[in-house]
Amino acid sequence: MDDTTLNKQIGTNIQKHRKIAKLSTTELGEIAGVSQSTISQIENGRATYIATVVRICKALNISLADVLPLNSVLDQASFVNLNDTRDLENITSLIELIDELTNKERKIVKDLLYSIINNR
């Protein structure tokens, strides 16, 4: 799956969940803390930051896995196994936690991780 297809799939999934929630792009943008035009661009397949997608998912009360076409990706990648899927789920929850931190707290987490990695 190429990036363009992936972006379109994510946008389509976000739009589907937004409509299920009966929200306009403006309303979703306000809840997620992003502009209406950002919501519209994402729904139309434009690339965005993962943190923005996470905020949108939180606003819709869905997980990142609900908008990522993991099944399509997994079907096409024969080298992916069940452990990789669990890793993706773990990473998603970490991203959601990090998204809630202040910039100062994020820097502390980043510094801690680099320290652990460099001192193995």
Description:
The chain is mainly α and 120 residues long. The protein has a single domain, classed as lambda repressor-like DNA-binding domains (434 Repressor (Amino-terminal Domain), Orthogonal Bundle), CATH 1.10.260. The protein is 74% helix and 0% strand. The chain is built from eight helices and no strands. It has helices spanning 3-20, 25-32, 36-43, 50-59, 64-67, 70-76, 82-99, 103-118. It is globular, with a radius of gyration of 16 Å. The protein starts with a helix and ends with a helix. Residues 73-80 have low confidence and may be disordered. It comes from Paenibacillus odorifer. This is HTH cro/C1-type domain-containing protein. Pfam families: HTH_3 (PF01381). GO terms for molecular function: DNA binding; DNA-binding transcription factor activity. Residues 14-67 form the HTH cro/C1-type domain.
SSE layout and pairings?
Blueprint: H1 3-20, H2 25-32, H3 36-43, H4 50-59, H5 64-67, H6 70-76, H7 82-99, H8 103-118
Helix pairs in contact: 2-3, 2-4
Protein name: HTH cro/C1-type domain-containing protein
Domain HTH cro/C1-type: 14-67
Pfam family, one: HTH_3
Helix-strand string = HHHHHHHH
Number of strands: 0
CATH T-level topology:
434 Repressor (Amino-terminal Domain)
User: What shape does the CA trace take?
Assistant: globular
Residues in β-strands, percent: under 5%
Under the CATH scheme, which class? Answer: Mainly Alpha
How many domains? 1
The stretches of 5 or more residues where confidence is low (pLDDT under 50) are 73-80
| Rg calc | 16 Å
At CATH level 2, the architecture is Orthogonal Bundle
